[in-house]
Amino acid sequence: MRSIEILLRFDMNVKVVDLGGGEDPDSFINKKGTQSFLEKVESSVNFLEFQSEVYKRRGEFSDPVKMSEAIVKLAETIAWINDDIKRDLFIKDLARKFALRESILEDAVQKKMAENQKLEARTLRQPENPAMPSQVPAVRRDNTGRVVERIQVAKNDPVLLNEKELIRILLDANREMFEFVFHYVRPEDFYNENLRQIAELLYDGHYGGEVPKVDTLMTYMDEAGRILLSELVIEPYKFSRKFDEMLPNDPVKISIKSAIDVVKRFRILRVDQEIKELRDDLRKDFNDERLHDISQSINRLMTDKKELETELNELRSRVR
Question: In the list 74, 112, 279, 284, which could disulfide-bond 79, CB 3.0-4.6 Å?
Fold first, then answer.
């Protein structure tokens, strides 16, 4: 539901496909192929209509108590729609299709909207969070930890794509996954400012005892950050047309192995970046003394890289 709420807040038309039998896109495509999945997509329906149809099949619109609970749940979803006209049309359409009293549904939506506004107002009145991430660019450090350079990353750089993947993992992480990731990665290691901000909030939340939900993270982000965060929440559910060539696997084991791979790539990309910058520095100002110092630094980084690869490869091999 958190991804649905985010999409509705951005006035997106959310449609749902019922794959049946507890299937997700990956498992459905593995079993029945891409063409069957695309046919399912063609029959997708609006999320609110889908939600209402589920309640109807369960008989929740036939029992007064259950109907009341169902209307509250529908109201919670409709209340996230910012566009007044679109929201009113949804209320009228759902009331007509499922024989609900429009006035009751409208009142429930207005009540939920008022609750949301109060919650947002309280959030805005809160003092600035001392753990709020710093708004500085990413940095490169020397072997003593001293900042030696601010680093900017291109939009489509492999480093950025890797950072996005790691944040997606953290957004769905349990305690053990948080511990694993943050054992190898520091929030300040992120080059992208928005992703670093998310990483720091998740890091502070994890070690502070309460990991913030996506809607809470949104309150700290600027518009560009909120759009990026919404993309990160939604993108894991996109599918590839090559999925029907894959063999079924244990999703939990795949998740753990994927996390190890992403963390390993995160660290290796940074080591490679440091090595490249050291070589560039040497080309700009070549002399025997610098050659000796930089060669030592590069050799040390290469050793660290090899040890890291060995350690994470061994860890991955133990996931059976």
Answer: 112
- Return the pLDDT at 132: 37
Q: At residue 22, does pLDDT exceed 80?
A: no
Strand pairing category for 15-16 and 45-46:
antiparallel
CB 319: neighbour CB atoms within 10 A? 14
- Partners of 141 in the beta sheet? 147
Would you state the pLDDT for residue 136? 37
State pLDDT tens for residues 118-139.
766 654 444 444 333 333 344 4
pLDDT tens, position by position, 29-44: 888 888 888 888 888 8
Sequence ranges of the domains in the chain = 2-125, 138-317
Per-chain mean pLDDT for the chain? 79
Residue 248: predicted pLDDT: 45
Percent of the chain with pLDDT over 70: 78
- DSSP per-residue codes, the chain: -HHHHHHHHTT---EE----TT--HHHHHHHH-HHHHHHHHHT-EEHHHHHHHHHHHTTTTTSHHHHHHHHHHHHHHHTT---HHHHHHHHHHHHHHTT--HHHHHHHHHHHHHHHHHHHHHHHHSPPPTTPPP---EEEE-TTS-EEEEE---TT-HHHHHHHHHHHHHHT--HHHHHHHHHH--GGG--SHHHHHHHHHHHHHHHHT-PPPHHHHHHHS-HHHHHHHHHHHHGGG---TTGGGSPP--HHHHHHHHHHHHHHHHHHHHHHHHHHHHHHHHHHS--HHHHHHHHHHHHHHHHHHHHHHHHHHHHHHT--
Pairwise CA distance, residues 198 & 190, whole Å: 10
pTM of model > 0.70: no
The whole-angstrom separation of Cα 288 and Cα 50 is 71
What pLDDT does residue 309 have? 92
Please identify which residue in the block is written with the tokens 């809160």.
126
